[in-house]
Every structure is written in structure tokens, then in C-alpha cells.
Write a structure and sequence with these properties.
The protein is of the alpha/beta class. Helices cover 64% and strands 14% of the residues.
């Protein structure tokens, strides 16, 4: 726990330090670009300066989110405050969208009522320098974001690289105007606005996915299942569910299939081994390990399982069945069937499967669960 707190403290320092560098760079760039844009009467340069100011504000919000998210767990929030970072990313997305829409409105006004620009050599040098600074800043911030698993920093880094492209387009428009007399500043402003709005929507979508809960990374889920199935006592791993409480805390649950001859003590030892292995290899807290018992001593049950599996799997849209168990004395059978979300009418398919299985073994009572495809 002490090591985790140390890592969290170091992560916060990296986020704050990187964000402060971003703030300083963006404020300076915004000041120079605003001066150039006003002096040259260029809406494109002015909007580029405004874009830099929104980047600086985004970095401030990133720092606030990291500070709030780094607070220690308390009685009201026993799993910590990591989701504050998702909220900060949501605010950043809203700011970016507002800046993009405002820029679009101003650019359209300049198209309707155009004004001639007047670029100087100093202005061109400043814009060119801004392109270089943004490329360096974007690569640096993105790398730091990946290093500490900060979605806000990664988003800021990508935004900075977008800004480099936008500043380059402003520079190109200025050069075209100086060489041909064709004024493209307002049109470049529209292009900048559209890119900003698109980036804002993408940030908003990604953040909402984190807040609502999204399908885990297939590589991560497959890696956890491989770790679990590597234990010789595990006959299968299913129903992996992961819940994120911030970039540094993911809690998971899983069902494992084991032989019906295992004792409570053996299952307890298995559960603890799996929890330690998943935490050690993936850094994920395996909070719950559910148990499916597999019949191991009856040839009749094995034949029943094989026959039912073939019948159910013959339907398009069936991903798998699992958790199959038969109580021969009570004449009951239970299992889960996982259907693809793409099935047009999953309830109808589920009812069909229930009817077909019941017809195969009319003297049995079936408990068939219509399960969800929550992970790969």
C-alpha cells in the first residue's frame, strides 16, 4: 500500500509538472499570436491564439483533476477519488467544443465581411516558431501521459499536435496571401474551427465511455483470462467484468469453472492464488471469484452436456455456453448462454433455445441464464 501511495504521489507530480509546462508554453504562444493576429488583422491567427488559451485552460483543469483524483480514500469514497479525472476530461471537452463553435461563428462573419490582412516578416517567423514549439510540446505531453496513464495528458498532447497542423495551415495561408494576394484567412479559420469541434466531440465521446462503463480492452481481458486459466485447478474462465474507479484502480470479478469434487478449503486457496496472480501480472484487483462446478464423474452428464452444446451452438448469434451443471438426483440442469449483441431479437432466440433444450430432455428442469457478452 505504501508503494502504491508513493506511485500515486509521483504520478500526480508528473501530471502537474507536465501541465505547468503546457500552460507556460500555451500562454506565451497565445500572447505572441494574439499580438501578430491583431497587428496583421488576421482572424486565422487570432483564432489560433484563442485555441492556445483553451489549451492552457485545459492544462489548469488537468491539474485540478489530478489533485482531486489523488485524494486518499475516505469513508464516503472507499475506492478513492480517481473518477475526478474523468470529470476534468469532460470539462476540457466542453471547453474545446465551446472554443470551436465560437471560432466557427467568427470565421463565417469574416467570410461574409472580409478584411485585408497585413503580415510582417516577424509575424511569419513567430507563426513558424509556434509550429515547431507545438510539435515538441505535443510529443512531450503525450509521452508523459502514456507514462503515467493519464487520459487528460494524452488528449492534451494530441491536441497540441493538432495545433501544430493548424498553425502550419495559418502560415501557409499567410504565404499564399503575400505571394498571390488571395486572402484565405477566414477559410482557414473555418477549417481550424471544424478540427477543434471534431476533437472536442472525440474527447467527449471517450470520456463518456469511461464514465458510462465500456467494454474492456480485448488484450487486457484475454490476458487476465490466460492468467486465470494457467492455474491447473481452473477448467474455464467466464463472465469477466471490470469496473474502473480512475486511471489507477480497476476492480474485476470473474467466474471460474472447477471440478465438483473440490472442497471449500481448496476453492478458498484457489481464489487467493488467482487474486494474487491477476494483481501481480495485470495490476487489477480481482475482488470476486465466482465458482461454476463441473460434473466430473458421470458419462451420462458428459453426453448430455455435449448434446445440448451442439444444439445451442447451432444457432447464429450464440457466442458460447458455460457454467453447465447437472444434478442427476434432482433432475435439474443449469447453464448460461451468451448471445451476440448483434442478434436482432435476442429474447426470441433465448426462448427458442429454452424450448429446444427442454424438448431434448423433457423430464429435466432447466435454469438457463441469458447472459451478456461483457468481455472478449
Amino acid at each position: 500500500m505504501a508503494q502504491q501511495e508513493l506511485d500515486a504521489a509521483e504520478r500526480e507530480k508528473v501530471i502537474v509538472r507536465t501541465s505547468v509546462i503546457g500552460i507556460a508554453a500555451n500562454v506565451l504562444l497565445a500572447a505572441f499570436k494574439a499580438a501578430v493576429g491583431l497587428a496583421a488583422n488576421s482572424i486565422a491567427v487570432v483564432l489560433d491564439a484563442v485555441n492556445n488559451l483553451t489549451d492552457a485552460l485545459s492544462s489548469v483543469i488537468t491539474i485540478i483533476g489530478a489533485k482531486l483524483g489523488g485524494k486518499a480514500p475516505d469513508k464516503e469514497h472507499p475506492l478513492g477519488h480517481g473518477r475526478y479525472e474523468y470529470l476534468s476530461a469532460l470539462v476540457i471537452a466542453a471547453i474545446v467544443l465551446y472554443a470551436g463553435i465560437t471560432a466557427l461563428v467568427e470565421s463565417v462573419k469574416k467570410i461574409i465581411e472580409p478584411e485585408a490582412a497585413d503580415y510582417s516578416t516577424v509575424a511569419l517567423v513567430i507563426i513558424a516558431a509556434a509550429v515547431i514549439v507545438k510539435i515538441i510540446l505535443g510529443r512531450y505531453v503525450s509521452a508523459k501521459g502514456r507514462q503515467v496513464n493519464s487520459g487528460s495528458l494524452v488528449a492534451s498532447g494530441k491536441d497540441a499536435l493538432f495545433d501544430a497542423v493548424l498553425s502550419a495551415s495559418v502560415l501557409a495561408a499567410a504565404l499564399i496571401y503575400l505571394t498571390t494576394g488571395i486572402g484565405l484567412e477566414a477559410y482557414v479559420g473555418v477549417a481550424i474551427s471544424i478540427v477543434i469541434i471534431k476533437a472536442g466531440f472525440e474527447m467527449l465521446r471517450e470520456t463518456l465511455d469511461d464514465i458510462l462503463g465500456k467494454r474492456p480492452d480485448p488484450e487486457v481481458s484475454r490476458g487476465i483470462k490466460r492468467t486465470v486459466c494457467a492455474d491447473p485447478e481452473v477448467l474455464g474462465a467466464y463472465d469477466l467484468l471490470m469496473e474502473s474507479y480512475g486511471p489507477n484502480l480497476t476492480v474485476a470479478s470473474i467466474h471460474v469453472e472447477v471440478a465438483d469434487t473440490m472442497t471449500a478449503l481448496q476453492i478458498d486457496e484457489l481464489t487467493r492464488r488467482l487474486q494474487q496472480a491477476v494483481m501481480s501480472e495485470h495490476g487489477i484487483a480481482l475482488a470476486t471469484v465466482g465458482i461454476y462446478a463441473r460434473n466430473t464423474s458421470s458419462d451420462a452428464v458428459r453426453e448430455m452436456r455435449s448434446r445440448i452444446t451442439r444444439t445451442v451452438a447451432a444457432h447464429d448469434g450464440v457466442i458460447q455456453i458455460h457454467g453447465f451443471f447437472v444434478n442427476e438426483n434432482a433432475r435439474t440442469c443449469s447453464f448460461d448462454v451468451v448471445l451476440d449483441f448483434a442478434v436482432p431479437d435476442g429474447d426470441a432466440l433465448y426462448r427458442t433455445i429454452c424450448d429446444e433444450v427442454q424438448a431434448l430432455y423433457p423430464d429435466y428442469t432447466f435454469l438457463i441464464t441469458n447472459d451478456r457478452d461483457v468481455s472478449d
